[in-house]
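Subject: Sanity check before I submit

Could someone independently write out the structure tokens for this chain? I want to compare against mine line by line before I put it in a report. The sequence has 286 residues.
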Amino acid sequence: IIHSHGKGAGLIGRILAILLNRKHIHTYHGIHLRCHSFLNRLCYIFYENLFKNVDSARIFVSESEKNYAIDSGISLSKISIIIPNGVNLKERINKSNKIKIRNNIRKKLNIESNQICVITLARLVQQKNLKEIIEISKYFKFHKFLILGEGILRKELEDLIKTNNIKNVFLLGNKKNVFDYLIASDIYLTSSLYEGLPIAVLEAMSIGLPIIASDVVGNKDTVKHNYSGFLYSLGDIKKACEYLEELSNNKIKRYKFGLNSKKLQKKFFSKNIMKKKYADLYNLIN
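---
Independent answer below. Compare away.
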């Protein structure tokens, strides 16, 4: 079996499947046609439909991704299923260690114990729409906004922060100890233009953080609105700020939403569940 993930690998995998007479499975990780020209969209849809019969199975990582594919005119293969991304559970970290990790990171970053820390894990690329987070940060001078990740937009984002004299947003680059920074934070914020099913959000959920997310494909499958976090319409800075203020001022709600967030991750987005579904599919195809 040849199993490809994403657009580039999908083309290679399909060609190899034809040449080697192998069965092929393709997993989509975000179908982002809105960001392409009309001609590019037509070409991509034509390409996907042309290779429909090459794919023994097509896997979508979220229900909204599958629905978006259908609405866009992409044909389904005989087996087209949803297997959500999954992450490892983070239950082995005891309370005292969490407090120690939280205090160490906050001391390192000069974050006071009573300050709300908002975190984002993202590549610094257009898709992640990080300028929206910087815009939100302007309304919360006492909050700290941590952005972990690297990408081609670093210089542009640095210039934006400097030009607007923003003192509470920190571009921290790539970190090996990502979960330490999640533990040190209070709220996870994502403003992505689109997703497949965001691993970073699942990791934040596994720590027990409440989520504020743009209401787009992928994000909407992870967050249960007013239960584990809030979904806001893309570009609606005012509403995003209202939700952030609500969670910032209500410690009990943050804690409750965080617990619910962790429950959802454990029930629907664990790596063990994902692996079992893939194994079952391999056995079925084979």
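---
OP: Matches mine. For the report I'm noting this point. Residues 251-268 form the longest helix (18 residues).
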